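Sequence in, structure out. Go.
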Amino acid sequence: MNRRTINAVVLLGVISLASILIVQLVWVRKTLEMQEKNIAIQAKEDSSNLKSFSENTIIALKSVLDEIQRTSKDSLDTYGNVRQVNNNQFTVDFSEELQPFYLETLLKKEFYNQNIHQDFIYGIYDCFVDTILLSNMIHYSKDKAYITTKNKPSEISTESLNLKKDGHYFTVFFPYFTAKSIEPAVFISPWIYISPLSSFWLIFFGFSLAIIIRQKRLSEVKTDFINNMTHELKTPISTISLSSEMLMRIDLNEDPEKIRKYAGIIYKENKRLENQVERVLNVAKLDKDKVVLNKENFDVHELLAEVKENFEFNQLNQGGKIELNCAAENYKIQADPVHLTNVVYNLLDNAVKYCITTPQIVLNTQNEKNHLVIDISDNGIGMKREDLKQIFEKFYRVPTGNIHNVKGFGLGLYYVKLIMDAHEGKIEVKSAVNKGTTFAIYLPIS
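Output:
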């Protein structure tokens, strides 16, 4: 997939995401409008339900009172005898003694006739003895109509019912009544089902786009690695080919110095080619199998001094300086000296390769908690912040276009990270463009 295709996919993805977000905002707005409308309708229905409940209850209680007067042959006027104390409590005045079971039977009958499907209790007050008798809870069941239970709500008492103390009357209380308990209409917006579906597609598309971008980056890394490897292998091959051609043209009996010179070039370039192939194969082997460490108890300061001496002799013949500051008090650790030496050499090699001036390298050691810390600082070209996140990935190199003035396969820092993980240590890096880079190696102290 080429860059133009990737850019087109990303652009299309951004447009799609923006469209989905706009649609989502429209849906949310419509849902909010519907909810506000539904709340207003619900409030109106609650008010209507409350009014209807009050009217039906008063009708039922008037019917109960009429039946009581008819049975007792009482002809007194009953206007105003039924009163509503609050939303869920009513009282009814009467002039005769009243049996609880008889009242309960009438209440169940009339409430059922008026479709009042609420749990209730009732109480009968007798002013002659100044007492009130509260019933047990009468529960409404859709299958069995009204049934009398054996319990009373603990929160209900004669004090909580706002009872008066004059005349004969009975009261009816609906403890669980609210306007919403009268089975109001429920409205669910259809947008609520569409929104999760669109969110799922949004997440899926974002995931797919992330995979495409990752594949693009891997493809670029692969292409960069192939270009670098081709250049690294092509140079010694060309040198060997040219030297061999020159040897074939020289008379074996003449000029033995030239023969020795070209033979030496062929030998060195062949070793160089062998080393390059070996590096790739070694990293491939380490990646395939677990790293096997041959740990020893050794002196890190002694190792760094030896590395400094060898590196100055081999790498800094064109000038430069390595400064070694050994401040760590505990510098003897259990580690693989071969792999650890390779780690330090890799970092020093990078410090020289990525420096466009005279290399100035500083090695510091210190103890931090249970670790020995080795800092390697340089005055090289540095790296951008976005590159720091990827430099330890296999084959990754800081992009330089088609310029191959810095040789390598992008395996050095990957190897360093692999070895540090195997030692249960860690490596951190700080860098600034044109100011240099500092690598910090943390090794556990046993």
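Check: The chain is about 50% helix and 20% strand. The domain at 296-444 is CATH 3.30.565.10 (Heat Shock Protein 90).
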